[in-house]
Every structure is written in C-alpha cells, then in structure tokens.
Amino acid sequence: MQRIGVIDLGSNTTRLIVMEYAPQRCFRLVDEMREAVRLIEGMREDRMLQPMAIERAIDALHMFASLCHATDTSEVIAVATSAVRDAANQQEFLAQVRQRTGLVLRVLSGEEEAYYGYLGVVNSMPITDGYIVDIGGGSTELTHVQGRAFQRGVSLPVGVVRYRDRYIHSDPISKVDFNALERGLDEAFADADWLHATDAPTLVGVGGTVRNLARIDQKRGKYPLERVHGYQLSLEGLERTISTLRRLTSEERAAVPGMNRDRADVLLPGALILRHVMRRGGFGQVVVGGQALREGLFYEHFLSHQEHPLFADVRDFSVRNLASLYNYDVRHSEKVREITLSLFDQLQHLHSFGAWERELLGHAAILHDIGLQVGYYDHHKHSAYLVLNSGLPGFNHRELALLTILVRSHRKGDVSTSEFRAVLDLSDEARVMQLSALLRLAEYLERGKLQVVKELRLEFVGGTIIVHTYLEGDGTAEIWNANQRGGLFRKAFGLNIEIVPG
Length: 502
Description:
alpha/beta, Nucleotidyltransferase, domain 5, Hypothetical protein af1432, six-stranded mixed β-sheet, 20 helices, 14 strands
C-alpha cells in the first residue's frame, strides 16, 4: 500500500488527510488533522494577510509536514484557496511557506476549487443531477452537476469569517447586524439565478460549516447514527438552529450540543449563507456530504489512469473497496451473492421486491464475511460493525442501516431493527426479515466455501418450497446446514422449506 497526504489551506481551517491506497484497487483514510488558523482574519481592503494569521497557518502547515515525514508519507499535495487566492502578499506568503515547511502550495482558482469539490462529491454520493454548495471561511462555491458531469462552478467572496468580520459587530448579533448580513447575501448572490431546484432537485452541502449544522440538528433530534455524510438537513431544521444561535453569545453557542467550539463565532453567518442558497434555489433540504475538495484531489490522483476521474458506479466500488480492505474471500462471496440472487429471483412472486432490494441484497452478500479479519467468533457482528462505521459512500442512512442488519443476520439469531427505527420505514421490518432469510440460506449452501452448488431450482408443493440443488462435488455439509438453518425462512415467508440434492 502506498501513502499520499492532501493538505487544504482554507481561509478558516487547514486540514490534512493521509490516504493509504493500492493503485486501481482500494484505499482508506489512515490519518487526518485540522487546525483553525483563521488565515483570512484581519484582511481588509488592502487584501493583506496579517502577520499573526500567517504565523498560525505556517505553524499548522509545519505540523502537517512533520506528520507526513514521520509516517513515511512521501507524496504530498498541498493547495490553498480563497484567502491566499485574494491576498496581495500572496507570493511573499508562498515563499515563507516553502522556506519554513518545505511545502509547495498550489493556489487554486475559484473554478478549480469548485471542480475538486465536485470530484469529492460525485465519487462519494449517488448524485446525477443537482447542485453543490461548499461554504468556507472566505468564499462559497456553487457547482451545477448534470449527468454526473461538471457543468458550471463559481466561487463567490462569501465566507463565514469574511462575513463575520464585515457584518457582525455585536454579541449576540443585533437585529441591525443580522439584517445587514442578509442584505449582503442578497447582493452577493444576485447573479446566481441559475440555481433552481426545478431543474435539478438535489442540493449537496459540503464543508465544515454544513457538517456542524447537521451535527447540531442530529443532536437535537437524538439521531441514532454517528454519521453526517448523507444526512438530510431540512430547511425547517436549519431555521430552528438559526433561531437558537441568533439569541446566544459566542460563548453560549459553544455549549450548544453538537457545536464545534472553534466554530461558535462563525457558525451563524454560515447558517445564514446556507439558508440563503436553499431559499434562492427553492430547496427544502440539503444532503450533507462528508467528502469535498481534499478527497477530490485524492480521487484525481487515484483515478489518474482514467480519462475522467469518476467511479463508474459509486456504490459498487464502495462495497468492493471495503471488502478488499478486509481481504474478503472473493470466490466465496461471489458464490453467496449468486445463490442469494437466484433465490430472490425465483421467489419474486412471494416478496414482490424490485431492483433496489436486489441490489442491497447483492451488496450484503459481498460484505457478509469481512468481520472474519477481526475473528471467527461473532464475525457476523464484526462485519456489521465494519459496515456501519466504514461510512460506505454512496448509500443513504436508511440503506446503510439495512445493509448493517442484513450482514449481522447472515449466520444466526433474530433479525432486529429496533436500534435503527428512526431511519427506517415501517415496511422495512418485513423487508429485512425476508432478505435476511435468503442471505442466511445462501451462506449455508456455501458452507464449505468450495462452490459446490452450481444451480438451484425451486419447486412449490403445497405449503412447502423444495430447493433442488445441482452440485459439483460433495454437498452433504451444505444441504444439512441449510436445512438446519431454515427457521428464519419459515418465519419470514410462512412456508416450509426443504433442501434436497438434484
């Protein structure tokens, strides 16, 4: 496995991610660091980066460079965005960074910043048509995506630190300052008349501001998942957060559940920026993305062998990436998938499920045994933990919960949905029960991991389903085990089941 570091020097925060990867096969995040450097703080009309801000930034970059060196991360991509892009003393700053840290910063244009954010989003979420809003310390990027392609990207000088410094002169914010900030947003977004939910209904929000707003909304509603990627933040929920934050001082905001303390003084302008985008475009909700510019830069590197740095199928790659990281048994998992989907197709008239359930079931079959890397005993639970906590880019929270339950239920025990009820539909209890029954049956028909079952044919005799198994080799253990584990199938479908050879 190779390592690469990606550093994003933003106007408010600078971040480092360290990725470990096998070229053209798989990757994972192995380390990350962040520091609130407030690089744009104090920048006036002369557009000069201030000495204290410069020192904070260089200290953070030196720390990041040291970590990369200590962890044998020899390749580092380092970029700077809005504050450095706008700075009159840009060249002096870049020279200082290179001299004192050894890092060569690439200054991104506004369109490049939007583009790399787009790469991070479309390679981690199933977005085909829509818009992306990335709210930073000094700027906000708006991107239009059509057919998964980058159509348009603009960078507006609207950022949480920039607008705090320009408009907020009271704590808590006064009505005068609040109204002035909103008027400033009206002016800044006057030319963004191409932002319409009617054209593409999906709005994805990225950046630390959006993630923090999502976390506050989750804490308020006691959300069951510790994951913001894929979370759907409603305009109504955002309005509640704004109503709370505008009444509080910065110190009081820091105590709000879910608040990142170093964002307490800038989150309100960030919330107002997001609300303005949602209102202007007519969006009732924003889907929160956990990947953006840094990941986009990594994807450009990881997919450099392709003409376009995009995964053909985000969900399929996400599943196989996770499976590869835990050295899954490819032949066994593919055979379990084949048997599971054969059962699914032949029982179509009983369950009436469609392509969506079939896809999820196939993905669960690929992932069901990854927990063996932790240990054999309770490996179904280990697999479920890895699925739930890996993130699995491309899947929404309901789908992630269903996959977790399916993987956890593939060996034994009852099928429980209780911990995920807040993200599941009422129909999902019966759905996951029947899908789990198929996966469990397939697992035991592949008990010896020798792919002895070559074909299945189902016969319906009264209240019993007879599964004829066509074998290549000795399938005694598989047939015995599958018959022993038929209880969940009987419970899920209300029918007896008998597995027989030939």
